[in-house]
Write a structure and sequence with these properties.
Length: 277
């Protein structure tokens, strides 16, 4: 019944209803600096009305072939696209000598999944919204690479001018990265800033939470290091950041506030009266 009613709605109204009932339950971050790449993702996913946890990072570590894929969007289409891509990698991995070629191969599987599922998803009031971050290095890449892949299968490369990308819930954590991350930042600094970006999102949004998966790639190493962190392991970092932030605010110059308080002194309150109305 719902599908029949939904199919009769105009396209803009379908989008409105879909996005109104669909929550962005993802935080995935990729940072590219001169020394390498850092990636962070949470583990919350939605299945119907229930919230569960599942890994959002897929990694490949082979001879001179090291890269990762992080995804946001419906879990079902993510799993199908990754499964298709795994088969391609197993059969044709050696044919990809540069990362953009592997990205194109994954994009083809995303489009294949869209062709199979997009219509039925639309009938159910859902959108095909698989965004992906792909980072790493293959043997003929002159340096490490980072890409943002859109659901339509097109992509952009993340570079020195804008060295990071977030997919999912990005409104709360992006300002920290805008202020802090530079292309010449160290990998450790990038990882610290990335954690603070995640932590800001976690505190302000109820759809992003621990544990987090961290991927760490050093330029020309052809080896991706992956580590999962639970809340207890990083709790002290979050508390330390709260203290530092509060202390920094307190230590900021406040002479610019004098004019406000001077004007406050000049305000004369109206006299009180005993009139009763």
């Amino acid at each position: 019944m719902f599908r029949q009613l939904f199919s009769k709605l105009s396209f803009p109204l379908k989008i409105l209803l879909t996005t109104a009932n669909y929550k962005i339950m993802t935080y995935c971050l990729g940072i590219k600096v001169g020394a390498g790449i850092v990636g962070i993702s949470d583990n919350l996913i939605t299945s119907g009305s229930e919230t569960t946890r599942a890994k959002k990072v897929f990694t490949v570590n082979k001879d001179l072939h090291s890269f990762f894929i992080m995804t946001s969007g419906l879990r079902s289409v993510r799993d199908k696209a990754i499964t298709y891509f795994k088969e391609i990698i197993e059969e044709q991995d050696k044919t990809y000598n540069k990362l953009y070629k592997a990205v194109n191969a994954f994009a083809e599987q995303v489009k294949r999944t869209a062709a199979e599922d997009k219509t039925s998803l639309a009938e159910a009031g859902l959108s095909f919204n698989l965004f992906s971050i792909v980072g790493g290095q293959l043997q003929d890449d002159e340096e490490h690479k980072l890409y943002l892949l859109y659901p339509e299968g097109n992509w952009v490369e993340i570079g020195e001018g804008s060295p990071f990308v977030i997919i999912g819930n990005k409104g709360y954590g992006k300002p920290i990265l805008d202020r802090a991350i530079k292309y010449d930042s160290s990998l450790k600094f990038a990882l610290k800033a990335g954690f603070l970006s995640f932590d800001a999102t976690r505190i302000s949004a109820n759809d992003v939470d621990y544990p987090i998966d961290v991927v760490y790639y050093t330029k020309d190493s052809f080896s991706i290091i992956e580590k999962r962190y639970k809340k207890d392991e990083l709790r002290m970092l979050s508390r330390k950041w709260n203290e530092l932030l509060s202390d920094s605010i307190s230590s900021m110059p406040d002479d610019w506030l004098d004019k406000i308080f001077e004007n406050e002194k000049k305000i004369i309150p109206p006299p009180k009266t005993d009139n009763v109305y």
